[in-house]
Amino acid sequence: MFKPYVGMKFGSLAEAYDFYNTYSWVLGFSIRNGDNFVNVKDIQTMQEYKCQCSGINKNAIRSTTRCGCKAELRVHLNDCGEWYVKSFKEEHN
Q1: Distance CA 34, CA 31 (A)
Q2: CA distance 30 to 44
Q3: Which of 8, 11, 53, 62 is the most exposed place for a label (fewest CB within 10 A)?
Q4: What pLDDT score was predicted for residue 51?
Q5: Where are the domains of the chain?
Q6: pLDDT above 60 (res 7)
Q7: CA distances (Å), 76 to each of 22, 27, 52, in order?
Q8: pLDDT tens figures, 24-36
Q9: Rg (Cα) of the chain, in Å, rounded?
C-alpha cells in the first residue's frame, strides 16, 4: 500500500477518492468530502477529503463522533486536466 505524497497525480477525481478511501480503510478510519472549489467557468478545481472525525461541533446537542482529527488529502486540477495532491496530512488520532 502506497502512502499519498505531495505531487502524486490521478487521472480523475474518482480515482483520487478511491485511492485515499482505500488508504484510510487500511489505517482504520473513514473519509468524507471536505471543502471544494469551483472556478468562474463552473469547473471544479479543488477537493478536500477529510477523516470522518475531523472538526468539532461546538453546538452539538446529540453525541457526535467529531474529535478534531487532522487527517486530510487535498487535490487540485492542473492545466492538463490531471488531479494532483497539493497537501497531505497524515496525523490521524
Answers
A1: 9
A2: 23
A3: 62
A4: 83
A5: 9-89
A6: yes
A7: 19, 24, 21
A8: 999 888 898 888 9
A9: 14
The vertex-17 CA angle with 30 and 4, nearest 5°, equals 85
DSSP string spanning the chain?
-PPP-TT-EESSHHHHHHHHHHHHHHHT--EEEEEEEE-TTS-EEEEEEEETT-S--TT-SS---------EEEEEE-TTS-EEEEEEE----
pLDDT at 29: 84
pTM of the model: 0.82
In this structure, the chain runs to a length of: 93
Cell numbers 472556478 correspond to 39
